[in-house]
Amino acid sequence: YIIYGDIRYTVRLLMRRSISPIAPLRPLLAKLESQKSEMVRMLRALVEHESPSDDKACCDRLAEKLAAEFSKIGGHARLHMVKKAGNHLQVDFAGASGKPVLVVGHFDTVYDLGTLKTMPFRESRERICGPGVLDMKGGIVQIYFALAALYSENKTLPRPITVVLVSDEETGSQTSRVVTERLAKKSSAALVCEPAAGQAGALKTARKGVGDYLVQVRGVASHAGLDFEKGQSAVLELARQIETIVGFTNLRSGLTVNPGVIRGGTRSNVVAAEAEAEIDVRVGSREDLRRIAKLFKGLRPKNRRCSLTVSGGINRPPMERNAGTAELFAKAQTVAKELGFALKEKGVGGGSDGNFTSALVPTLDGLGAVGDGAHAEHEFIFVDQLAKRAALLAGLMQAI
Predict the structure, then answer these.
(1) What 3-state class would DSSP assign to 333?
(2) What's the pTM value of the predicted model, to 2 decimals?
(3) For residue range 301-324, what is the model confidence (pLDDT) as tens digits?
């Protein structure tokens, strides 16, 4: 029995299907350890193929490159063509029986084209540094080698596996969400290979929902010296609205509201006619998702001679820890124990495509590379974790 709070499960771990052999985990790990140099070479090639989210040509070329690589190890690759972002990659691997397991990731990065000149791929005894090495090209390497190891052992898999790698996760998954959700609906579970939580390699069993709101105010312009009383300041109205908006925060429930960008006015001697604020929202539960939408909808001008427009909303629902996620994590713990290490879990504030899949199927996140500094100049992964995490993913694919 696995016990978590008031929830008790009977978990059937590492089910041995007679129709398809299960690869022993310790030999599988040893095989992956022997391939470390190959894993690093592939990682270097991916990192040095820059793929900013907003550069369609770069992302399209990387999608084609990944399609060719996954095809070499038995996958059937398909590109989902889109106009407003890079094309998305789906790779299907045949299995013995059952609904597929969906393995989720992305190949776009937050770094502008040319970042390699100041932030090159660097390898030391313990670490590999470079743009996107942690988020999440290291995870792609682990997916590739996990599947290659399983497929080479048996020339088939215990169950079908579908890999989806998208090009716009870092910018909100606006074109890929429909692809990811369609595949999730056909799957039994989703394994998300975003970076692990922290340098200890914890898996992510909960994520906050993420939203963006834009609050725009229109006032009346006037000369600040000659006709001050004729003006109606949009900046002042926005400041008063922000005081109300920051009050929406509820740290106890995990709801946070951050006015991160503010713009307004034209000159200091002009009463501002326009002002706006970009506001980041994080919610821990679907209840708070509904609550925050109602609160923003209910905003009204403090100064009736100003007008107020509110747009935006939650673009990623919260990934809440539920029974399905807990069962997947318990299986991952058992796999890790068999491989010789321990796993912990953590809830995080950032979003991923796991937020989408968790609303549809049991989802476990943070199965990617272990390191630190995502989106920062010091972004790195631990070299010795590549094989271990690939083996963990392979074992979990078999255990579901």
Answers:
(1) helix
(2) 0.89
(3) 999 999 999 999 999 999 999 999
